[in-house]
Amino acid sequence: MYDLMNSMNTNNALFTQCTERFCGRISNTSACTSCPWGSKVFTKLFNDEQQQQQFSLCEICLSSLSLYNWLYIGFLIMLPILFLLMILPINNKKYNNNQSTLNINKKSWILFLCCLLIHCLTSLFTIYLYPPLGKLTLYHCPIYSIHDFYALLLAGSNCISEVNYPLTSLPIIYYIFSAFLCSLIYSLLFIRLFNDIIWLKYLYYVLYTYPILCMIIIIFSGILYYIFPYILLFYCLIDSLYRFPLIFDYCYQYSDGIIRPICNPLMLINKIFYNPVEYFLYIIMNSLCIMYALLSLSVVYYWCLLLSLLPITLYIITLPLTHPFHYHDCDSILSRMCITSFNEQFQCNDNNNNNNNQLRQRATTDNSGYHINLCRLLRNTNN
Fold it and tell me: Is residue 232, in this structure, part of any structural domain at all?
């Protein structure tokens, strides 16, 4: 009886000594160490004869992911897709290559859809690998503070574990699978379909993003967890300011065959719906990202998700008020073209100068007072 009481007192003493936040005991007789993967330290109360004390015990995490945690994982899954969308060509030019038969916008669509398919498959495969195996659900350890993302720095050398399971390991494994699959599929895609060395740089850009993203997850995951909706909103704002002026044409060809600046929002809407290939990819992605960010902010009223269409709506309404190309701009722009582009392509001969003078006269004699016939020419020059 005495030995039994002595053993119980020894175990109680060991429990009370293991009170660290990131260290715990796996069983009654184990040492105070780091918890196994998929488990976390939970504080338990121990009733002593004289007072109530706390001790740390490792328990398997069986909590289901909350909506916010799912949205955070989805944000990390979207990052490579958003990066590719950011670097894709956004104009309608064609390379001077006889082997290239696809329009550059169609190539962008193909590359984007392949990227979307690859990352959807790898994300599903990665989720299926985590417990419970083979199910589209995840267990996770509850997050109490930002310190749970930096147990590697705050815990001792013998207490290192993934306290925020699986919010660090899952994205890194997902990026590894995606990098391997992208290197295979993109290489085959460029060899068999694009046949263009220029598009090979996009393969390098995409592959370089994965180690960078892994470092960001390791270093800034705690910050990203709390501010990723604002990062996504900021990205959408900058993307709309930069990309909308490049993908939308400021000119419209009227029934008389003359190209004039757009003076009615309905003209731009008509162009979008009659030529959706050039516009819908960026409009839809921008609107969906804003909607995703608003949902991550725990919007109470779901009608607020309609605000995702606000940037494109404001741009369509205010575009006719800008008139970005004025006829006074033609002299400086054409002179710059003559020095740079025409010097290589057209050699700035006398015939070109005569043609430019005729275009200036036609532009300045138009009743609208705006540069009309050179509108598309100036836009291509600025791009």
Answer: yes
